[in-house]
Amino acid sequence: MKKFQASIILVILCLGSIALAISAGSTTLSANEIFSSLTNEQGLPHTLIFELRLPRAMLAFICGGMLALAGLLMQALLRNPLADPYILGVSGGAASGALLAILFGMGALVIQVSAFSGALLSIMLVFALAHSNSSWTSNRLLLTGVVLAAGWNAVISFLLTTSSSQQIYGMLFWLMGDLSYNQLSFWEAPLLAIITLVSFIFSRHLNLMSRGEMQAAALGVNTRTVRLVLFSTASLLTAVAISLAGSIGFIGLMAPHMLRLIIGSDHRLLVPAVVILGGTLLILADTLARTLLAPTQLPVGILTAVLGVPTFLYLLYRRS
Which residues of 221-247 are buried (b: 16+ CB within 10 A; e: fewer)? Predict the structure, then answer.
């Protein structure tokens, strides 16, 4: 019953965050204006909600859900509760690709494609370099990702140093995470739904893998196949989220841990719940980023870092 109540509360919080996102901003909308926008397509409330705020809230939910699910899969893959989607250098590769496109003055679509390509390149490099005798271990994968992330940071520093003053602002905004320049497309939501379904199907394997590969193998799990599926899925989610919203940290770290404290460690419950919570957290963070210093908009990554750093330190202290 406690888990059922937690699920109901989670759904209510998600719907409440969407309602807050469409009503709050530099122009605050009342409940009457929100309801009137459903019938009056010519008014300002309809334009604000259906052309600006609601698509942005949906994009935030999708990106937050992807990052949270990627964090959950990464923690099961590495058997490390402090792992998050950026730990394998994926964000560094995406950032390098995006900044390179910005340096050459490309548009938003090319920046997204470049970020996704850089993330995929980073994924392939980590997977290739972490192999040893046709296999790889969690520690080898983790160390390879950390070293590769340091290399990408050097590339990012070089690109920032060689950029003009006009380009620096856009680059820094992208590096800190930003949802204001991207539009919701038709494929993001179905992709998240399909990957969530696949992850739910593998939830039993996730439960066994989190207890150790030897025990999972003894119970009939093909650990090599499961590791490959987890790695590929988490990396794909991270790459897509970064290409859409830039480098937004700590969502993949916070959401799984918050849910484990409430509903336990059963991945059959965690997989759908973490998507909802991750999306809710990013919607709230983006709404706060839009309204805190309105009409000036803050990068959403600043707000997630403000929440994530204390959470990370608390988890580190609790683990030690």
Answer: bebeebbebbbebbbbbbbbbbbbbbb
Please name the residues in contact with 89: beta carbons below 8 A apart, sequence gap of 6 or more: 122, 125, 126, 145, 146, 148, 149, 151, 152
Q: Is the bond preceding 295 in cis, omega lying within 30 degrees of 0?
A: yes
Residue whose token pair is 């590969």? 213
In contact, 159 and 99? CB cutoff 8 Å: yes
Could you report the per-residue pLDDT of 91-146, keeping only the tens digit for each?
888 888 888 888 888 877 788 888 888 888 888 888 778 766 656 666 777 788 88
Contacts 24+ apart (CB under 8 A), 37-44: none
CATH topology of domain 2-319: ABC transporter involved in vitamin B12 uptake, BtuC (1.10.3470)
DSSP 130-150: T-BTTB--HHHHHHHHHHHHH
DSSP category for residue 38? T
Average pLDDT over residues 263-270: 87
Q: What is the spatial distance between Cα 119 and Cα 127, in angstroms, rounded to a whole number?
A: 12
Dist CA 5 CA 7 (whole Å) = 5
Phi, psi of 35 (to 5 degrees): -70, -35
Q: What is the pLDDT of residues 155-185, one digit of tens each?
A: 998 988 888 877 787 788 778 887 876 677 7
pLDDT tens across 135-152, in order? 666 677 778 888 888 899
Length of the chain equals 320
Place of tokens 């402090």: 82
- Work out the angle at residue 250's Cα, subtended by the Cα atoms of residues 23 and 242, and round it to the nearest 5 degrees: 80
Residue 158 tokens, joined: 């070089």
Higher pLDDT, 250 or 62: 62
Please name the residue that has the structure tokens 């459903």.
Answer: 38
d(CA 54, CA 63): 14
